Amino acid sequence: MSSRCVRQTIATSPNPFNSSTTLEYDIQEAGSVDIQIYDILGRTVMTETLSSQSPGVYNYTWNGQDNNGRDLASGVYQVRIVSGEKAMTRSVVMNR
C-alpha cells in the first residue's frame, strides 16, 4: 500500500463560488494526482491528471467548466482528489 496520501480535508475558496474556486490539497509523496468533478447525479463532468507532483501543498483552480470547456449550471458538485490509494471528496456549490 502506498504511503502517498491527500490531506484529510480539501480546502475550497470561495465556496459557494461564481466563476471559479481554488482547491487546496496536500500530498505526502511524489506522484500523479487525479482531480475529478461530479454533478449531483454522480456523472463525471471534469477530470484532470496532474503528473509528477512533489510532496507539498498545491492549489488547483476549477473554472466551473466541463471537459469540453462548457460552463456548467449552478448547483452542488463533488470534488474528488486521488493520490496513490487515498482519496478525499468535498462538496462545492456553484452559483452562476
* Overall body shape: globular
Strand content: over 45%
Helical stretch tally: 0
Q: Sketch the topology as an H/E string, one letter per element.
A: EEEEEEE
Strand order of the largest sheet: 4-3-6-7
Largest sheet: 4 strands, antiparallel
Estimate percent helicity: under 10%
The N- and C-terminal alpha carbons lie at a distance of 41 Å
Please report the total strand number as a whole number.
Answer: 7
Mean pLDDT over all positions: 89
What structural category do the secondary elements indicate? mainly beta
Determine Rg (CA atoms, Å): 13 Å
**Low-confidence parts, pLDDT < 50 over ≥5 residues?**
none
List keywords for this structure.
four-stranded antiparallel sheet; 7 strands; three-stranded antiparallel sheet; single chain; mainly beta; 96 residues
Description:
By secondary structure, the chain is mainly beta. 0% of the residues lie in helices and 55% in strands. It has strands spanning 11-13, 21-27, 31-38, 44-53, 56-62, 75-83, 86-94. The strands form 2 sheets. It has a 4-stranded antiparallel beta sheet, with no helix packed on it. The protein has a 3-stranded antiparallel beta sheet with strand order 1-2-5, with no helix packed on it. A hairpin with a 5-residue loop joins strand 3 and strand 4 (44-53). The termini are far apart.
